């Protein structure tokens, strides 16, 4: 079993023998709610989250490619998961499934054993062939046996006073961070950036306010693991109060209205404007210069409005548990 130095574990997780957590990968468990079987791997910059409502359970000899996101899913043994795949809460995946790169599995979807799955949203295109089975076996050194899982328990709760992110100046501009904000130690913030009080910047987040313009992040904002925030020249990025941005998102110079939730793996492009209390569904692309009014529900690649919200959004179950950030 190997957990690399730049990987982050938060909360209590159970890993089987031979598990591998690669560079930049984040495991965040709300309680004792992430389990991975023997010889399962999560490759670079992936984010795996288990919540109280939806624990994350991964079988043995299942491999996540680079920059995958899995939140509260049940994933079987011997699965081959392509780069950038997103699993949303409550989905159930059988054994020996193959997922094409960039596939998005919606919450609650059930995938039976030996399925080949592609698409955003996911669709099953066929069952495994013998050639597929041979590939899965070859990728596991010709051993697809499944001995009983040997669990190793890891628990990490950040302690008050630990290192809080890395701040860099750029052309005499240095980030302005509220004393009441919280930055994980692997977060990095550069240049003309302001972050308001009680905001949380997650592990592996990169916020770049270089010569292109200012980045202004309001109060009580959550930016989750491995997001990137940047902007084009002669632009600005404004994130208003109480916004939640899920793991693995890319947010470029735009205005994100108060109370908005951007679900995991989404992209918001420059010069866009999202109104207050907007919901951007997982894996969506808000293209350049898009304008959406308050209370919009957005989905797609590119995103379109698919409905209207009738009440204010609540923090999703995968949001940070603030009472567990320090002890």
TrEMBL record:
Q: Matching PANTHER family, A to Z?
A: DYNACTIN SUBUNIT P25 (PTHR13061), GAMMA CARBONIC ANHYDRASE-LIKE 1, MITOCHONDRIAL-RELATED (PTHR13061:SF29)
What is the name listed in the Swiss-Prot or TrEMBL entry for this protein? Answer: Carbonic anhydrase/acetyltransferase
Which Gene3D superfamilies does UniProt cross-reference here?
A: Hexapeptide repeat proteins (2.160.10.10)
| Organism (species) | Irregularibacter muris
Spell out the Pfam families in the cross-references: Hexapep
């Amino acid at each position: 079993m190997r957990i690399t130095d730049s990987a982050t574990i938060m909360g209590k997780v159970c890993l089987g023998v031979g598990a591998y957590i690669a560079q930049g990968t984040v495991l965040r468990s709300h309680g004792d709610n992430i389990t991975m079987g023997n010889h399962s791997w999560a490759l670079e910059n992936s984010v795996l989250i288990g919540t109280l409502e939806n624990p994350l359970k991964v079988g043995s000899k299942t491999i996540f490619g680079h920059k995958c996101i899995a939140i509260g899913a049940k994933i079987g043994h011997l699965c081959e998961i392509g780069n950038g795949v997103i699993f949303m809460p409550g989905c159930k995946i059988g054994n020996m499934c193959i997922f094409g790169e960039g596939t998005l599995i919606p919450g609650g979807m059930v995938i039976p054993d030996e399925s080949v799955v592609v698409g955003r949203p996911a669709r099953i295109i066929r069952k495994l062939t013998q050639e597929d089975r041979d590939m899965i076996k070859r990728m596991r050194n010709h051993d697809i046996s499944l001995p009983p899982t040997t669990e190793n328990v890891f628990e990490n709760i950040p302690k008050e006073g630990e290192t809080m992110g890395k701040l860099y100046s750029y052309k005499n501009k240095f980030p302005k961070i509220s004393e009441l904000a919280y930055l994980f130690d692997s977060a990095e913030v550069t240049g003309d950036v302001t972050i308001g009080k009680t905001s949380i910047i997650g592990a592996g987040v990169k916020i770049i306010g270089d010569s292109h313009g200012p980045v202004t992040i309001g109060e009580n904002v959550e930016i989750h693991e491995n997001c990137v925030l940047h902007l084009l020249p002669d632009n600005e990025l404004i994130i208003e109060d109480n916004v939640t941005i899920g793991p693995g998102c890319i947010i470029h110079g735009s205005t994100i209205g108060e109370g908005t939730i951007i679900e995991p793996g989404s992209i918001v492009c420059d010069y866009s404007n999202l109104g207050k209390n907007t919901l951007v569904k997982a894996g969506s692309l808000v293209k350049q210069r898009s304008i959406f009014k308050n209370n919009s529900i957005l989905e797609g690649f590119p995103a379109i409005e698919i409905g209207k919200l009738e009440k204010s959004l609540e923090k999703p179950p995968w949001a940070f548990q603030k009472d567990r950030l320090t002890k």
